[in-house]
């Protein structure tokens, strides 16, 4: 995923995979309102390492394809080891 249009990329990928906002919220242990705010650009995700790994699994993407803006602290070396 590119850093441009994170909101639209997030929505497109979620819909492509047949996931609902509630699916994402439940898996990442956030509220559905939080996911809605990410998708509308009202707030940015700041995910823990555990949440990022779950997001990668949900979106079927390697860590390198998740925008930096989604990370509270991105250290891909730590995440991939």
TrEMBL record:
<dbReference type="Pfam" id="PF01381">
    <property type="entry name" value="HTH_3"/>
</dbReference>
<dbReference type="GO" id="GO:0003677">
    <property type="term" value="F:DNA binding"/>
</dbReference>
<keyword id="KW-0238">DNA-binding</keyword>
<feature type="domain" description="HTH cro/C1-type">
    <location>
        <begin position="13"/>
        <end position="66"/>
    </location>
</feature>
<protein>
    <submittedName>
        <fullName>Helix-turn-helix transcriptional regulator</fullName>
    </submittedName>
</protein>
<dbReference type="InterPro" id="IPR001387">
    <property type="entry name" value="Cro/C1-type_HTH"/>
</dbReference>
<dbReference type="InterPro" id="IPR010982">
    <property type="entry name" value="Lambda_DNA-bd_dom_sf"/>
</dbReference>
